[in-house]
Amino acid sequence: MGNQETPHWLVWAREIQALSQTGRHYAENDYQRERNQRLSEIAAEIISEHSEINYPALVTLFQEQSGYATPRIDVRGAVFRDGKLLLVRERMDGGWTMPGGWADVGDVPSEAVEREVLEESGFQVFANKLIGVYDANRTNPMEIFHAYKIVFLCEILDGEPRPSHETSEVAFFGYDQIPGSLSGERTKPRHIHDAFAAFAEPTTPTVFD
Question: CA-CA distance, 12 to 33, in Å (whole number)?
Answer without folding.
Answer: 20
